[in-house]
Amino acid sequence: MTATPAPILTVAVERWPIAGTFRISRGAKTQAQVVLARVAAGGHVGQGECVPYARYGETVDGVAATLAALAPAVAAGLDRQSLAARLPAGAARNALDCALWDLAAKQSGRPAHALAGLPAPRPLVTAYTISLATPEAMAAAARAAAGRPLLKVKLGAPGDPARIAAVRLAAPAAELIVDANEGWSGDDLATNFAACAAAGVTLIEQPLPADADAALASIARPIAVCADESAHDRHSLGALRGKYDAVNIKLDKAGGLTEALAMAALARGHGFDIMVGCMISTSLSIAPALLLAQQARIVDLDGALLLARDRPHGLRYDGSVVHPPQAQLWG
What we know:
By secondary structure, the protein is an alpha/beta fold. The chain has two domains: 8-113, 2-Layer Sandwich (Enolase-like, domain 1), CATH 3.30.390; 124-322, Enolase-like C-terminal domain (TIM Barrel, Alpha-Beta Barrel), CATH 3.20.20. It contains eleven helices and 14 strands. The strands form three sheets. An eight-stranded parallel sheet has the order 5-6-7-8-9-10-11-12. Strands 1-2-3 form a three-stranded antiparallel sheet. It has a three-stranded antiparallel sheet with strand order 4-14-13, with no helix packed on it. It is globular and about 65 Å long.
């Protein structure tokens, strides 16, 4: 009797050019660097992608090396539950967790949503990002995207009130959400909140640095505030109560779809609204997040839209409506 071949993990680093320049309060970039995990077993291949994030001390080479070191464990039958005990929440665990979901779907002939006990995903409206720039440049970008129903405006630098006012003038009908990427301080918080309220902003992401966000518990919040850099996995949620109204769940922070689903359930129990976000990445990163996004108040999954090109069988975007993935891509 022939033994079943052991699963084989391979890891690759890929670079995908961004259409133009993507700028936030911490800097700018012109390409997305991703790490791809592929697990082959029994004639099937499962894939998962992650985006290492320097904000959390991750590097592309470090994440790739962490994953490659798990090849013997994968060959020995490492599963998603065991993976959570082997790696901390973060990009490396996300790539392999999602690859194992994809492999299980292909081996079973059942879609990932069915394996997770979820209803079939439906198309969703995603935010479209306006990068941080001068008020004039941001107004021009907003004017070009004014037909989209939801715009995410990157702020986090001196002069933000002028930026958000210019964007609102350029896109009068769009719902606006703001992401300050930890770029504000206690000194300018009230002024920036007031400017966002005047512009009709409905949600502000991470206005203060994660290690200095206590002030959010003691000031009036005229707009819902969402934790991003302060929110990671389930264990981070308790410290957010009283300071935030929503949490942005990203698979690269949570460590994969497995933890993200559990985190969303606990967040709802704490009374938080759910936002589902992504890094700038190909559709392979975003596909599993679409399962989680079905239960979100705000969906921010435009990462692949910001690339100059996407991988084969990429997600279909009709304007701001993103459709569930084909099986050839993931799940």
